[in-house]
Design brief:
Number of strands: 17
Number of helices: 4
Largest sheet: 6 strands, mixed
């Protein structure tokens, strides 16, 4: 039996040996090991066919996949769905039932691979019958995007593992977020300072001119601050307003304090101020001095902006 299993060149008489019994044992062992390895090698181990199919990003559940130029906004919900094919199936002895066992992890990430939210993980454990030979599992996930996130390009990272076939596959699908454009910096600063007519205005004043008794509203974004452990920031800001003659009209050294932590490291924090003028305020140009302090990073930044009372 063994001689029939050996290659022909080993069954031929060897000049140095009289019979098969004289063949070195290590040669027989190598041939036997290779024969058993070939007999029990899994097709899945040789070449994986596991695939992620029908995957896409949606603006609402079960909506069509968003186009390449679609932009989500900070605070929006992002929906995602996918299917898997090419997984291994384990047959149950003395039964028509077959089992699959998959695991997956979904994570929205920025361009550097930093997760925007905690990942969604799960398993696909199903019993299949003969009628399910073309069936592919579908899974969905939803993510609440951070409120303070800069505009840019992001992606959904999906990793799937076949626990029966011992194979895995990954996929990255891009999506875009609009809103505030923030340059990368570690130096404290203020950008997008805007005077407003009302506190809920969407458009800034081209000419910041007010009347006596009006309230001056302004919005801005603080950038370049440092984060502590747990992505915690700690900011404060104050303001001083000088009259047209240079004398102090209003002083609020501690107008606001901003402190919080988040899962995703926020690139900016919005701030706002309001100053109510008196009805007998002098006409002319006033100068507002904004002082921002980064407590965690021991930084201070000052910004001057002028407005007029006419």
């Amino acid at each position: 039996m063994l001689a029939q299993a050996l290659p022909a060149f080993l069954r031929r008489p060897h000049p140095g040996y009289r019979s098969l019994d004289a063949i070195p044992r290590f040669c027989v062992a190598v041939v036997m090991a290779n024969s058993f390895a070939f007999a029990f090698q899994s097709p899945k181990a040789a070449e994986s066919s596991l695939q992620i199919v029908a995957a896409g990003v949606e603006s609402s559940e079960d909506a069509p996949f968003v186009s390449s130029d679609f932009h989500f906004l900070p605070g929006d919900y992002l929906y995602f769905q996918f299917q898997v094919s090419g997984f291994a199936v384990k047959s149950v002895r003395d039964s028509d039932v077959r089992k699959i066992n998959l695991s997956y992890e979904i994570s929205p990430q920025d361009a550097k691979g930093v997760a925007l939210t905690p990942p969604v993980t799960g398993f696909v454990k199903e019993d299949l019958s003969a009628e399910d030979k073309n069936w592919t599992p579908k899974r969905r996930a939803a993510f609440l995007l951070p409120s303070f996130i800069a505009a840019g390009e992001f992606h959904i990272h999906l990793a799937v593992k076949d626990l029966i076939g011992d194979t895995s596959t990954e996929l990255d699908l891009p999506f875009h977020i609009g809103g505030v454009v923030v340059p990368p910096t570690t130096v404290l600063g203020v950008q997008d300072f805007q005077f407003l007519r009302k506190d809920d205005d969407n458009q800034p004043l081209e000419v910041p001119a007010y009347r006596p008794g009006d309230t001056i509203y302004a919005r801005f974004n603080v950038i370049g601050f440092h984060l502590r452990n747990g992505n915690e920031y700690h900011l404060s800001y104050g303001l001083t307003v000088n009259r047209p003659d240079g004398k102090v009209y209003l002083s609020q050294p501690s107008a606001a304090e901003l402190s919080d932590r988040s899962f995703y490291p926020v690139p900016f924090v919005p701030g706002e101020i309001s100053v109510t003028t008196s009805r007998d305020a002098a006409l002319g140009q006033y100068v507002l001095l904004l002082t921002v302090r980064d407590v965690a990073g021991s930084q201070t930044y000052q910004l001057k902006r002028a407005f007029s009372i006419e």
